[in-house]
Write a structure and sequence with these properties.
Structural class: mainly alpha
Number of helices: 3
Shape: flat
Helix content: over 70%
Radius of gyration: 21 Å
Distance between the termini: 46 Å
Largest sheet: none
Number of strands: 0
Strand content: under 5%
Number of domains: 1
Order of helices and strands: HHH
């Protein structure tokens, strides 16, 4: 048991030492405000992000329906619908392609 814990700690230490430089280089990246949507961003949005948004919208609707009796009792139905249904739907269907 002690050997497994030691191996786990060594693995976490190595992973941390390997991944820390990637995080710092991402923070050092210069961000441009005038950045236009690129074809890569639009493609990634269409192929990966929009389908995830559709799934989030459907799951949010299902959770909202299940939580509706509790939301009605707590008088926060409007807030629940905003967070669970409207925000995922707006993220999926109303924003420009490639704009995250």
């Amino acid at each position: 048991m002690h050997k497994i814990a030691k191996q786990s700690m060594v693995f976490l230490l190595i992973a941390t030492l390997v991944l820390v430089p990637f995080g710092t280089s991402a923070l050092a990246r210069e961000v441009s405000i005038d950045e236009k949507n690129t074809a890569v961003a639009m493609t990634a949005d269409l192929v990966f992000v929009r389908p995830l948004g559709i799934v989030a919208t459907v799951l949010g609707c299902a959770v909202f329906v299940v939580s509706l009796p509790f939301s009605a009792l707590g008088s926060n139905t409007k807030e629940a619908s905003q967070k669970l249904v409207k925000e995922p739907a707006q993220f999926t269907f109303k924003r420009p392609l490639g704009d995250f």
